[in-house]
Amino acid sequence: MIPRTPEPELMNDPLQVQAYAAADFAASDQALVECIEQLLQQSGERLGAGDCLVDLGCGPGNISERLARHWPTCQVVAVDAAPQMIAAAESNRRRAGIARERLRYVLSPLPWHGLQSRASLIVSNSLLHHLHDPQKLWSGLRLLAGSRCLVMHRDLRRPPSALALDQLCERYVADAPEVLQRDYRASLQAAFTLEEVRAQLRDAQLAHLQVRELEDRYLEIHGWITGCQAGLDQSSA
What we know:
Rossmann fold, 7 strands, about 20% strand
């Protein structure tokens, strides 16, 4: 297994923001939303009026907008620590004609202690590998979750060898802009393995969450949690 090489936590360079905002991730973004819908159906749950959906590390807002459109009676709160990404997301929201009451972007660093949400759904896509301390994500989930919250996180997984790394870059970004090629290679090198993520979840007392390898390059982590504040509310009732 190649060693992990962390990359910068923030993607705030204007060239990066422009490249990611222009890239077409529609198929994978839609697949994520459909997977969430499937998990809800399997659990007999529905999202509706009064539910808050949180998108962590939202970038230019691609998934945030899909959440807002798929569940139009819910409020979506999308969070990123990079000012340039939040600015791009806000511009995209206005262009898409989605009201701020339905989709709100928040500039906030991890672990979001000041963000009030009581979320029914927490999503992140390609956030985990950016974090120098992954517990910032896992420990932050219960701060945001409501009394019953579905969490869904997808990320890259680190390839086992330099050859596998080269093959993935050739397969998926050979024709992409240079900035995306560079970032994709760095992201694969910064990604975690399945066993590393399972260890992180054990440390965070979230070992019940399901972790699986998806296709030739992804990890998916999902399951249900209860928020800290909800637990306090229940114990004091």
